[in-house]
């Protein structure tokens, strides 16, 4: 199952320089970043910042949406959720009956379900593969243009259904130096080639690493998503 949130989130970006105490091995240790819907934990791990760190650029983004038709927590029960064609697990499954916009897609075979948020300006889209289709196959075909076609109002119909989906929270962190280098952004990480003098007045600085972290929660009331990236 794949989800995608279409939203206008709140974002923030800041840069700060590091100052060190004489007896300090690490200048700062921020345990986590807190948002109304959750927390990104261990974003700055102990001793991850040392005396070679001159500056950190920190960016955050946050989205919180309430369902137009929230689930009743009394109807949430343990049930089977298929993570792929031959693997399943027990999770908390939320269930409700109501009218939802759905579309039956032939290639790849799947059902698209649209859940509206309370302001009806943004929506949460669920892509549910047919039994003989893997999630990977849908992901391979997923582009912005393709999603726009799948969710085109002309292709969707309002249908009364019984709809169940997992209640969950996921969190992860990713180093991005490798992907950036693979895309051709290399000089930024190479001493003597990086030029950050426009930001700092110092042409000796170089980016050592870029990290991104996300936390995403879906519950009976709605969904929360938060992301943070740091460049050091």
Automatic annotation (TrEMBL):
Q: Where is the Serpin domain positioned along the sequence?
A: 2-230
Instruction: Provide the GO MF annotations for this entry.
Output: serine-type endopeptidase inhibitor activity
Q: Which SMART domains match?
A: SERPIN (SM00093)
Q: Highest taxon of the source?
A: Eukaryota
Q: Where is the signal peptide?
A: none
Which Pfam families does the record match to this protein?
Answer: Serpin
Write down the InterPro entries for this protein, in alphabetical order.
Serpin_dom (IPR023796), Serpin_fam (IPR000215), Serpin_sf (IPR036186), Serpin_sf_1 (IPR042178), Serpin_sf_2 (IPR042185)
An annotated GO cellular component of this protein is:
extracellular space
Belongs to which family?
Belongs to the serpin family.
Q: Which PANTHER family match?
A: SERINE PROTEASE INHIBITOR, SERPIN, SERPIN B11
Name of the protein in its database record: Serpin B11-like
> Species name for this entry?
Notechis scutatus
The lineage is: Eukaryota, Metazoa, Chordata, Craniata, Vertebrata
| Recorded name of the encoding gene | LOC113429829
């Amino acid at each position: 199952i794949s989800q995608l949130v279409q939203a206008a989130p709140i974002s923030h970006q800041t840069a700060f320089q590091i100052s060190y105490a004489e007896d300090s091995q690490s200048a700062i240790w921020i345990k986590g970043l807190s948002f109304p819907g959750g927390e990104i934990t261990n974003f700055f791990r102990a001793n991850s910042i040392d005396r070679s760190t001159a500056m950190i650029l920190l960016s955050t983004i946050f989205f919180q949406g309430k369902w137009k038709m929230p689930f009743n927590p009394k109807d949430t029960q343990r049930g089977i959720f298929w993570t792929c064609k031959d693997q399943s697990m027990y999770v908390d499954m939320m269930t409700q009956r109501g009218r939802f916009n759905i579309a039956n897609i032939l290639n790849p075979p799947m059902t698209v379900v649209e859940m509206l948020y309370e302001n009806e300006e943004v929506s949460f889209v669920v892509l549910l593969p047919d039994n003989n289709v893997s999630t990977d196959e849908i992901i391979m075909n997923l582009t912005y243009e393709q999603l726009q076609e799948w969710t085109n109002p002309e292709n969707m119909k309002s249908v009364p259904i019984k709809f169940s989906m997992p209640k969950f929270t996921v969190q992860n962190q990713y180093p991005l130096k490798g992907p950036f280098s693979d895309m051709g952004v290399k000089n930024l990480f190479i001493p003597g080639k990086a030029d950050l003098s426009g930001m700092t007045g110092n042409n000796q600085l170089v980016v050592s690493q870029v990290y991104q972290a996300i936390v995403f929660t879906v519950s009976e009331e709605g969904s929360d998503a938060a992301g943070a990236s740091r460049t050091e």
